[in-house]
Amino acid sequence: MPGGRLTQQERRQIALGLADDLPYAEIARRLDRPTSTVTREVMRNGGPTAYRADAAHRATERRAHRSTRSPGPRDAAAAPLPYGRDAGAVHAFEEVFTEVLAQSGMTTMLSRVMVALYTTDSGSLTAAELVQRLQVSPATISKSIAFLESQGLVRRERDERRRERYVVDDDVWYQSMMASAKATARIVEVAREGAGVLGPGTPASTRLENVSRFLDFVTESITRAAEQAREVLYTKPGTPAETPAAQDRTEQAGTEQAGARLDSEA
């Protein structure tokens, strides 16, 4: 497997792979490179939709040139990461996490802001800290935070120095799941109405009825599981987690209850 920096030709192959909607793993296989190398390359240079091979190559050369100069004040002030974390490993993880969130529907910028907040031990950052960390404009941070706040993914608070901080709550994923369940419940309701409109026993009616039953079953299971597992989001470091056996019993009980209800409707 080749090592060293990516060549300009390899970057052009990455760009072609992205244009063909190939997964990073497949692009990496064709280059005989680690998947993490391709992921870092793409996320460092605009993300999958904005990656340009020549621009990425020039940016890499500029970064290489900067790395050879004498350390400046900012370099000297850079503090080591807490808890003995490996900076390279953390950076690679942040890029992968950003990619996963982007694939779930967020824009790359929103994903980067969320990842920055989630990988900070305090779970909060000021606008200035986000600007410095992500190397973007204050206006970009302001716009991103406004949208994330409107979706209930972050909130604002004032610290002891009266600075506005942006916070990710432990409850975000629970609230997100419940909002999704509520939206799906509306689909169930409409599908059932459609089944009645199209006439009981007809193929179209049966299809919609099956869809409504399936989504109702899955949504109820997810809602119950989210309620049962909500306390996990508040587990503190060093707190023993629930044993796998107990988790299995909880999941099995929920599945059996939902399955029994589904059978009763059939």
Automatic annotation (TrEMBL):
Which Pfam families does the entry mention? Answer: HTH_38, MarR_2
Q: Which GO terms describe its molecular function?
A: DNA-binding transcription factor activity; transposase activity
What are the Transposase IS30-like HTH domain coordinates in residue numbering? 5-45
Q: Do you know which InterPro entries this protein is assigned to?
A: HTH_MarR-typ, IS30-like_HTH, Transposase-Integrase, WH-like_DNA-bd_sf, WH_DNA-bd_sf
Q: List the residue ranges of the region (Disordered).
A: 46-81, 233-266
Task: Name a single GO cellular component.
Answer: cytosol
**Gene Ontology annotations of biological process type:** transposition
HTH marR-type domain boundaries = 104-161
Question: This protein's superkingdom?
Answer: Bacteria
Q: What is this protein called?
A: MarR family protein
